[in-house]
Amino acid sequence: MKVSPWWLGGAGGLVVLGLVGLAFGFFQPGWPDIPEAPEGGGKSVFAEFKQKTGEFRTKLGELEEKKKGLKEELSGHRVFVSRSLVFLPKDAEPVKPLNIEQVTDDGIQVGWKLKYGFSPEDPDVSQQDEDQDGFTNLEEYEKKTDPKDPASSPSKWVKIKISSAEKKMLVVSFTGKSLGLYTLRFKLGKDGKNVEENIVVGDKLWVLVGASGLKLYKGEQADVVFEEAKKIECPHIIPLLVKQYKEDQGRRINPNTQTENDYDDSTLILERQDGLTGLAKVMINEGNISRGVAWNVGNVRLNSMVPGEGEMGPYRVGQSFTYAGKTFVVTEASPEKVSLRMSPEGDLVDILSK
User: Fold this and answer.
1) What rounded mean pLDDT belongs to the chain?
2) Does 14 score more than 70 pLDDT?
3) What is the C-alpha to C-alpha distance for residues 337 and 204, in angstroms, rounded to an integer?
């Protein structure tokens, strides 16, 4: 009897479906383990197949966990990169370039730090001394010198501060005149004694102020004067030249009383011949009122912050001294500021307190 091909096809399909169903059953959880083969000590083919399937599922789960963790990590970044694509965030923030002119909290520009190899974010850069020349990086930055070259350093006088500066005023007044002879009065402070000297135009005076008070010398007595200065601890002698006398007297209307009165505005011109060069005009006293000049003759002490130097002085206004290969003249002095003039350049240097 001849079997129809349709029957054969149907039977074959049923067999395939049965095998698929049988295999699916082995993959479902909860099924009892296939008993091991009683002989040979090994597992059956089906049990071994199921074990490998379980291991496969475990590894698949681990891969899913790793994938999830990687996804969470990447979600915090602004840019995501694959082998071929770059994904940018929807609202990307612009990247700001580094501003080299920005001054950091320690007072130094970013560009200067980068130029000399310092980190812009290092807060200790300003107080470091890279070349060990006694100047901090901040001082080198302010004076535009190379912080890594000891031969390129700021001037040493930038390290000088005021240690002390006395205010002791010497008042010089013109108190009388008679037939070409003039009287100058010198007084040290409010409570000092008056020291008077009769002079003529062309006279030279030497003014000494020391621990024991005020002394005057007249004429060319330099040797005697310098010896006396040592005795009374006078650090600086003021040499004066009586340069000129100007007569100015007569009658004029007083603007307050509208009356005509006598007046005398005659003047002596004095020239200081120390470092405080210039002319001083001393007008004759009007009644008991001085119309002279006042000079500070107090001691000035400075302090060098350069290692190994320390205190300098005492100096006086008008006195010159040498420091760091330069000559300086004290032109003004107060506890807040001492002004120095470099000679012969004429540059001014202001020294401040500590």
Assistant:
1) 81
2) no
3) 31
Answer yes or no: is pLDDT of 270 > 80.
Answer: yes
Mean pLDDT of 195-213: 94
Residue 188: other Cβ atoms inside 10 A:
18
Distance CA 251, CA 262 (A): 4
Q: SS3 string of the chain?
A: CCCCHHHHHHHHHHHHHHHHHHHHHHHCCCCCCCCCCCCCCCCCHHHHHHHHHHHHHHHHHHHHHHHHHHHHHHCCCCCEECCCCEECCCCCCCCCCCCCCCECCCCCEHHHHHHCCCCCCCCCHHHCCCCCCCCCHHHHHHCCCCCCCCCCCCCHHHHEEEEEECCCEEEEEEEEEECCEEEEEEEECCCCCEEEEEECCCCEEEEEEECCEEEEEECCCHHHHHHHHHHCCCCCCEEEEEEEEECCEEEEEECCCCEEEEEECCEEEEEECCCCCEEEEEEEEECCEEECEEEECCCEEEEECCCCCEEEEEECCCCEEEECCEEEEEEEECCCEEEEEEECCCCEEEEEEC
Q: How far is CA 154 from the centre of its chain?
A: 13
Q: Cis omega (within 30 of 0) on the bond before 314?
A: yes
Return the higher-pLDDT residue of 96 and 207: 207
Q: What is the pLDDT of residues 46-98, one digit of tens each?
A: 566 667 667 767 777 777 777 776 666 555 545 444 444 444 555 656 656 67
pTM (global) more than 0.85: no
**332 and 140 in contact (C-beta within 8 Å)?**
no
- Out of 178-187, 230-239, 250-259, 297-306, pick the least confident: 250-259
